[in-house]
């Protein structure tokens, strides 16, 4: 199919193409150009300690600065990157840029050894034979500790080649990287994966957090996930926290960290740097 063909392929618009196929072709062409033209950028969403309120890390979230449309959501273009294989070079760029950001914060005294930056990793990217190699390369080049990186993977990534996936995860863990299972509870066989995979952190999907204070089923699900994590010695991060009531629920039930609009939306590198500085200043004031 066309998607497997070379980069220089020039496709001609067919009048018979559906509107959807046309839109997709336009997006795909734009995405091929985006990496070259440096239209991708990262935003950062702080992760906060539920009990102390301190920033203990962040998640790197990819954005596309489209020349005409403005900022495009990853929900729209990640599936295309995955289907075309473009996720491999783009994912490499994400990892590289994430390491560069951590290095910059570390140099400025804003990033401490216990802090972690979450990077989303796609199945196809993780399956590359040289994946471990370029993780090593990126961390060494930027002189950051691998333990400052947290790789966010999803359950859907794990359906094929379980054995190889587990081996590769273990090698990266030996190197110091941690693993989070992202959007936990939305995929298949969550509990079977928890048993078989070397996971450090469970990220509870925002779909369970949304109605946590009004829907007894969601409340029960989140309480249960937190209890399982506690028993299995896994850390927990709640996603999509938007209200003080949701945070109070998480506090009462022993969730470790959260991220969400209640604390901050994903923000630019500059804004994240300023937020980390403000936290440093606050600690200084409190210590004196
Ligand atoms: P995710 O990893 O589950 O990221 C969390 C998403 O929830 C982000 O959407 C974030 O902006 C959004 N979010 C955070 N707090 C709140 C909140 O309080 N309320 C609501 N309603 N939403 C909140 P975003 O940035 O649009 O990313 C969507 C998805 O795209 C991510 O979901 C992730 O699966 C994927 N993605 C983003 N960046 C990358 C990347 O670099 N590589 C790969 N492979 N996937 C990525
Ligand atoms: Mg994520
Ligand atoms: Mg998530
Ligand atoms: Mg999600």
UniProtKB/TrEMBL annotation:
EAL domain mapped to chain residues: 24-280
Superkingdom, natural source: Bacteria
Protein name per Swiss-Prot or TrEMBL: Bifunctional diguanylate cyclase/phosphodiesterase
Taxonomic lineage from the root: Bacteria, Pseudomonadati, Pseudomonadota, Gammaproteobacteria, Oceanospirillales
Part of the full-length chain shown: 529 to 816 of 816
């Amino acid at each position: 199919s066309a998607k497997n063909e070379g980069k220089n392929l020039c496709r001609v618009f067919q009048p018979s193409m559906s509107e959807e196929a046309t839109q997709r072709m336009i997006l795909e062409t734009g995405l091929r150009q985006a990496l070259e033209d440096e239209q991708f950028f990262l935003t950062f969403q702080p992760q906060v300690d539920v009990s102390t309120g301190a920033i203990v890390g962040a998640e790197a979230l990819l954005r596309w600065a489209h020349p005409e449309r403005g900022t495009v959501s990853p929900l729209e273009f990640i599936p295309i990157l995955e289907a075309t294989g473009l996720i491999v070079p783009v994912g490499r760029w994400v990892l590289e840029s994430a390491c560069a950001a951590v290095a910059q914060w570390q140099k400025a005294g804003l990033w401490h050894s216990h802090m972690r930056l979450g990077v989303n990793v796609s199945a196809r990217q993780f399956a590359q034979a040289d994946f471990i190699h370029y993780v090593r390369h990126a961390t060494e080049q930027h002189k950051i500790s691998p333990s400052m990186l947290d790789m966010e993977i999803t359950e859907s990534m794990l359906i094929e080649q379980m054995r190889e996936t587990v081996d590769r995860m273990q090698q990266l863990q030996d190197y110091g990287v941690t693993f989070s299972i992202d959007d936990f509870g939305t995929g298949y066989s969550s509990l079977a994966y928890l048993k078989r995979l070397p996971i450090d952190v469970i990220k509870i999907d925002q779909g369970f957090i949304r109605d946590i204070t009004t829907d007894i089923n969601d409340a029960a699900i989140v309480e249960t996930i937190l209890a399982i994590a506690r028993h299995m010695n896994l850390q927990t991060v709640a996603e999509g926290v938007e209200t003080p009531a949701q945070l109070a629920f998480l506090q009462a039930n022993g969730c470790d960290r959260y991220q969400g609009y209640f604390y901050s939306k994903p923000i630019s590198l500059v804004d994240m740097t300023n937020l980390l500085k403000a936290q440093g200043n606050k600690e200084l004031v409190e210590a004196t």
